[in-house]
Amino acid sequence: MNLIQALKQDSQFTPNEKRIAAYIMGNLLETSQMTLADLATKTYTSHSAIIRLTQKLGYDGFRDFRVALIALAQAQRYTQVPVDADFPFAANDTTAQIAKKMADLTTQTITAMQANLDYGILD
Q1: Measured on CA atoms in the order 69, 74, 75, 79, is the torsion positive or negative?
Q2: Whole-angstrom Cα distance, residue 47 to residue 63?
Q3: Per residue in 107-121, pLDDT tens?
Q4: What is the pTM of this model?
């Protein structure tokens, strides 16, 4: 089970742990760069609540969890997602999500343009 799936399986989480998991899923890139104290401040929880959550997810502690979170954030950063050019953004998108969608849309445009090139005319 990957990290996102584990965070979504919140049936055994306490209310604080659910709040932490929801924050992490909504702010993956930002959270991967946070310290334990930063995450506790942003989620209005304690350090021990975060450590308990990471242990429930199968990690030794916050450092091991953060390593997995960084790897996931980097993988998602470079994974392209199809973007609807007519409505590329949602009202609740974060700045990071908007930037990613703009990059993905630009890449899709370039790929489509390359596919439509007539190399005979270009030569």
Answers
A1: positive
A2: 12
A3: 888 887 888 778 888
A4: 0.66
